[in-house]
Amino acid sequence: MNNRQKNCKKMKLIVLLFLITIFKNGCLVSAHLDMVVPDHKNVFDLNLYESVLNPELCEEQLNHMLENDQELLFEFFDAGIRTPRGILTGGTLDLGNYHQCLGIHKQIPTSVVEGKYCMINVPLDQDWPSLPSTPSLPDITWPDITWPPQNQRYLKWRENIAKKSNDLRMAMAGFDSFSGATNESISALAALTFRLGVCIPKACTPRTAINAIFGGLNTSPIEFEESYCRLPKDKHWVAGDYVALIIFGIFILLVALSTGYDIRHNIFLQKDPKKTNKLLLAFSAYTNTRRLVTYTPVPGTLECLDGIRSFAMMWVIIGHTFVTQTQSQIMGNPADALAWMTSLQSVWITAAPITVDTFFTLSGLLLVYTTAGKLTSLKLLKNLHLFYLNRLLRMFPVLAAVILLQISIFNRVADGPYWNVEMTNTHRCRVFWWSTLLHIQNYVNPSHMCLSHSWYLAIDVQLHIISPIVLVWILTGKRKLAWSALVGSLIAVLAAATTYNFIKEFQSGPVIPSRPLDTPDYLINYYVNTLTRASPFFVGLIFGYILHLNRGKKVVINFYAAAVMWVCTTVIALLIIYSSYPIMQLDWNNQFADSMINSFMRPAWAMFIGWMIFACEHGYGGPVNWVLSLRAWKVLGRLSYAMYLVHYPLMFVVLAMPIVPIYFDVQFSLYNFFADFLLAVVVAFIVTILIDSPCSVLIKHFMGGGPRRPPQKTAPAIEPEMVEKELKTQL
After folding, report:
1. Which end of the chain has less neighbouring CB within 10 Å, N or C?
2. Which region is the signal sequence (predicted)?
């Protein structure tokens, strides 16, 4: 009995800590209290909800169902309130039957009864009344329908309906047990709040309907808070919808015309490709697809980068798959999820946030590698406006397209009982789209960013804006000045970030069970802060310069020295991944370790990535280089920017669709990852072919190919695509 009580206490602690973490993170992820959403930008038609309310009609329809139409009343019960399942594992949600509720439509003598779906919050810490007739479901009088006696299907249907009615009575009567329970595991549940889906006539408010059915029209048997209601066709059209349809319609038309021109001239007429108009081919899906999937090896290309980029992107997506489920407000067993997240088996997921620093490292590395030797300091300063403009323009088309998708299309492709998750994301983009396009969202509105993962793009752009301070010294051609600038800037960034981290005393991860109340401060002031995320970028600058100095040369390293470097960097990487395990424990309390992790984990990871690229490029990569240099990664590498932008919004669309709470399971989450990954690849391919590739051709045409490297006899040619990749977000 003592062991049982101990296990019960542990379970209560896990449940309560996890729920606190979820609700605090939920406030950060979906908070819109300080975000004013004008009615003309709201996802739902607020006037519709007000216009359907009619107290007289509500009372009339409720009385009719209670007295004359018990089958219709049971339809509302069947589509609505139930006791949540898995309460002892943190399950406090029951969604009812959303689509069944909204499908109720029945003519009665004086009006039409239609269903309205609502969510209510019912705290268990209340004085539960004695409800001798709970719920007030009279015996169902079955209609006199002539059926053949041998029709067992009808008899079985009647039996199932009667059983459901009895189950409903028992479930509702079970509420009384909480008030007088003495068992420790049950009494602890009084701190929880049930979130229940209810189905009511659309003319009623939830309080009116529940009062009438369970306690009479003038008394309330249950204390609850109304959350939101939904009606059929309640998503009204706003200006953003029309703008999105017009812009996407124009692009689709241009693609159709350009593809037709391409196929006619190059396939049917077989004309000389040199005589075709390049601008008319810019939107051709045929040519752009061929360009996307065709790869010609060019000396000087860092072949391993696409493999690194692809593996990093897969790690991002699988991490987001698990995070969106474990922190979802519609998960049915949060205690089980937390138990797994705090175990050693989950370190490959809890350590996933470090993979973003891989992209910062690649961004800094390619900035130097593709610029050094191509520009001088004077040319960089004279063309600084083009340096910035090229970067911004190459990122703009896909980013703007995904914002438009979030503003309109993603909101309309599906629906579900918890669509307010997707509603919040749409509201953010309708209100704060401008800060995302300006790449200032991590400072202007960090708690409700349009595209919550776009903080990476903001920091990446901000780092590129300040990069000429270092780059100008690298381009002088004087190694002492270059090394002084590179090392000095890295030391300055590390010193400033370390001082900031030790003063602010942040936790060391996005979700730390022992410090749930500190999560919002960590995410706003550390996780999306340019200073704290800059060190991998500056480490990347150093490795980019090292690769530039040894371009076209064979670097000779002693076998044992190379082996020692691989062992040391691999151990560092594994320690970084493992560090996510102790900080996820419920009893973790070591602020010094937290501050050290925050200050030095990211540059250490960047050193591991930098060494791996250097070793692969100069023949010390072995099987690692073989895997990372496979041609299979080329297409994924080229799609990675679009994949990064589209995958997270798509996850929220899918997450808002379930009609029942999600049960967390590792195997189930892995299958979801494959679905998320495939969906991201397909949508990213469409966005790249329809928008990114045509805009890339037009930008290069009107702005020119940029400064070219002077011909050199000793240095091999550089793949032209590397210059383009440097101008894009390096994902």
Report:
1. N
2. 1-26
Reported as half-sphere exposure (CB side, CA atoms, 13 A), residue 132 has a value of 0
Q: Which residues contact 633 (CB under 8 A, 6 or more apart)?
A: 306, 307, 309, 310
Burial classification of residue 402, based on how many CB atoms lie within 10 Å of its CB (0-12 exposed, 13-18 middle, 19 or more buried): buried
Q: What angle do CA 687, 629, 671 make, to 5 degrees?
A: 55
User: Is 286 found in the same domain as 215?
Assistant: no
- 377 and 253 belong to one structural domain: yes
- Number of structural domains (the chain) is 2
- Among 197, 230, 263, give the residue marking a domain's end: 230
DSSP state of 460: H
CA neighbor of 74 nearest in space, from 130, 144, 158: 158
Do 179 and 303 share a domain, yes or no? Answer: no
Write the pLDDT tens digit of every residue in 265-284.
888 877 777 777 788 889 99
Residues 48-57: tens digit of each pLDDT: 999 999 999 9
Q: Roughly how many angstroms between the first and final C-alpha of the chain, as a whole number?
A: 55
In this structure, the answer to whether residues 111 and 260 fall within a common structural domain is: no
What global pTM score does this model have?
0.83
Please give the residue range of the domain that contains residue 98. 45-230
Q: Is the peptide bond before 135 cis (omega within 30 degrees of 0)?
A: yes
Do 315 and 454 share a domain, yes or no? yes
Helix (H) or strand (E) holding 229: strand 225-230
Q: Report yes or no on 410 lying in a domain.
A: yes
pLDDT of residue 41: 87
Inside any domain, residue 145: yes
Tell me the sheet residues that pair with 112. Answer: 107
**Same-domain status, 221 and 263:** no
Same domain, 186 and 260: no
pLDDT at 216: 52
Q: Do residues 203 and 61 lie in contact, with contact meaning Cβ atoms separated by under 8 Å?
A: yes
pLDDT digits (tens, 9 = 90+) for 367-386: 999 898 788 889 999 989 88
Q: Once rounded to an integer, what is the mean pLDDT over residues 280-302?
A: 87
3-state helix, strand, coil in the chain (%, to 5): 65, 5, 30
Long-range contact list for 474-482, CB < 8 A, 24+ apart?
Answer: 474/368, 474/372, 474/541, 474/545, 475/371, 475/372, 475/375, 475/376, 475/377, 475/379, 475/380, 476/376, 476/377, 477/376, 479/549, 482/545
Same domain, 374 and 465: yes
Name the pLDDT band for 189 (thresholds 50, 70, 90): low
Among the candidates 198, 230, 262, a domain finishes at 230
Tell me the pairing of strands 225-230 and 112-123: antiparallel
501 within a domain of the structure (yes/no): yes
Q: What is the pLDDT of residues 688-720, one digit of tens each?
A: 999 999 999 898 888 765 444 444 443 333 343
What residues have CB less than 8 Å from 509, skipping those under 6 apart? 350, 353, 522, 580, 583, 584
**CA–CA distance, 77 with 135 (Å, rounded to integer):** 10
